[in-house]
Amino acid sequence: MTQLKPILSHLDSIPSTPGKFKSEKVSPFNTTFNRFRLVPRFTLWSLVSLLAVLFFLFFPSPANNAAPDSPAIRIKRRNLQNSVSLVGSKWENRVLASGRPSAKEGFSVLVTGAVGFVGTHVSVALKKRGDGVVGLDNFNSYYDTGLKKARNALLEKSGIFVVEGDINDAALLEKLFDLVKFTHVMHLAAQAGVRYAMKNPLSYIHSNVDGFVNLLEICKSSNPQPIVVWASSSSVYGLNSKVPFSEKDRTDRPASLYAATKKAGEEIAHSYNHIYGLSITGLRFFTVYGPWGRPDMAYYFFTKDILKGKEIKIYEEVDHVTVARDFTYIDDVVKGCLAALDTAQKSTGSGGRKKGAAQLRIYNLGNTTPVPIGRLVSILEKLLKTKAKKKVLPMPRNGDVPFTHANITLAREELGYKPSTDLEAGLKKFVKWYVGYHGSKKKSSW
Q1: pTM over 0.70
Q2: Is 258 annotated in the active site?
Q3: Does the pLDDT at position 270 exceed 60?
Q4: Rounded CA gap, 160 and 299, in Å?
Q5: For residues 117 and 24, what is the distance between their CA atoms, to the nearest angstrom?
Q6: What pLDDT shows up at residue 9?
Q7: Burial of 435 (0-12, 13-18, 19+ CB in 10 A)
């Protein structure tokens, strides 16, 4: 097995006089034209200008017909903002400094979704072991942006500069790749969540499909091409009933739009690997949890509601079978992400041209021990010393699947991936962070 770079725990320490009017000679051609030419020049051109303005007001171009908050308008605004923010040596110097490795053999890594849950932990771990890290995140409002800003403060404390921007902004990505010769891209940016797809489906296409293609376009045209590691999801297994889920199992029956976009991402990765020689590794995450997690996850909002004395909903399948998840602690997932970077082979293309077969891999990163949601609640009650007000309901048809269970044999053999944190130990760390962050309003350190 390829020798892995040392992985340090990311939880240690730190944590922008008109000229004078000159008359002309009257043309001898005809009287009518002569009378017309007697009108001063500036008056004539003023009339022409006025007509032009009126024309554009009443006959706007197709682009201007876009709704005030349409994607086309938003992209134009974003590109305009970036064109202003990317000017100046101060911004460039911050990117360069952040992307410069401190270790002799360190990588230069672009981490997309850097202020996300997994992105923050992975970025800090990379920086602490000596890699250069430049973050990219659009700070969207899918969940509390205050939490994202707090994570960003931790990244800044670690010497990591996060560029605020969208992965669909090609001009921004080109600028970053011009400044830093990234050896690796850790692509974690995505529109997350299963149920939200029923409210805003286009956001999943924008981020998980369009954004991924835009990023790969930049990567395949780079010279040299970077290695790409990206976050897929256990949701691609969809309606599979065979457990545990193996990388060889079918993934053509997604139960949600989110899952469908992640599956689309895997097929897109295959095509860019095959055509352009990009080295690409996909990681199927299984219900990642821990400190600084996502508020839309069950363990997080259960904790909030239990402490507030609010009722929590526990869903079950037919025959009163409760939903179960293969909860995977964040530190274990971080180790898997770094191992995927360390064992990846170089891309074989250059400037958009493939020169040989390139590595293409996919791995499950789970904990191999599915836990019923009822058991999750019991552990939280114990740690919070508070009894939960539970309401059991039938599983809604909203895209959620009844259970997840990872087979991690391949990741263990090829990445040396060995999850070591059980749910109770991981939740104990999460609860400690949660009380410190939300209870006292004092931000926890790493």
Answers
A1: yes
A2: yes
A3: yes
A4: 29
A5: 72
A6: 45
A7: middle
